[in-house]
Amino acid sequence: MKNAIFLDNAATTRTDPEVIDAMEPWLSEKFGSPATLYSMGSQAKQAIDAARQSFADLIGADQKDIFFTSGATESNNWAIKGVADALESKGRHIITDVAEHHSILMPLRYLEKKGWEVTYLPTDSDGMVNPEAVAAAIRDDTVLVSIVHANHEIGTIQPIAAIGKITSEKGVVFHVNAAQTVGHIPVDVNHLGVDLLSSSAHKFYGPKGVGAMYIRHGVRITPLLHGGTQEKKRRAGTHNVPGIVGMGKASEIARHSLEAEATRLAGLRNHILDWVESNIDDIRINGHRTERLPGNVNFSIEGIEGESIMLSLSYPTAGDARPIYVSTGSACVSGSLEPSHILLALGMPAELAHGSVRITMAKADTQEDVDYALEAIAAVAERLRSMSPVYKRGNKKCSAGSSSQGCDCEAAS
What we know:
Aspartate Aminotransferase, domain 1, single chain, alpha/beta, 12 strands, disordered C terminus
């Protein structure tokens, strides 16, 4: 079997070889705990401090405001539950939007069961949140606004700086889930005006199981994990030294290569968008056309299931074909048969949401890989449509965002 083409990098990225090399000593001879006073412990503490500075440099923060976690899911839970606990006496109202990651939505539903009120703002058909809607939703008892920086499925980049200006003026804590943006596009916590920011190392070529939370100095937040005095008594538990070192190295690499790589991936992204629109009939591009992550493409193909495309590409029948790994939604819920809540939030019919394909690229992906994958996707789509009892080429359903050309409904007349 030929080498696979991995185009699901929003789910996870391949750990950079330089990151693995940096981690290796801390998995073997340098295995001491940073909580100890002898030399092995001191070395580990120095390594953690260096990694903290590297990540702080990547997001324009003070290293004193960086706290290591197990990843963005923990950081998101900490932000929501920690602020809610610390500021409950001020109010019990939180604002988010309907197209957030499940690691935001599930903690909020947990709080709702305990009597908290959550306002879920709508998005437009591109998945964009209107800053004016945020301003209008803030009340005297609002303690937190949580909006993702860029959506993990459709790639839309939110107007975070505009929202941050509003929350700052209103005196409301602003949390941003930046798992998809840190290491891929410029992120500066001061420019964005955020108080809390979550990230995960494995999203930008670091190891799994480690992440970080930026907590602006002065923000009140209760620890999520209680125990030892690690991370200035804010996050208990023995440090994952190899993982933290790896995250620091990944941060260092990203800071020096981010601009050039973002430009390259944006070129490939635009090539894919143009190609699918020109070569595959009856599709819809999901997410904002320009305000989107450089390596993210998401589109829906009418008349077929995204799962069928994904499996056909993953397990090609031709002996010389290369397996191609794409996604049909969030990796965290890929086992679900329900249509993506994010695509439904755009106003998309469930049957079209079921036909979504997400292509997310990384630094290992080439123009040749992309072109090979596009030809394969088009061929699979044509084969699956030929077997469909419901699909009729050009008979569009006038779904949200699609052209009515060829549609036989009243709206096209």
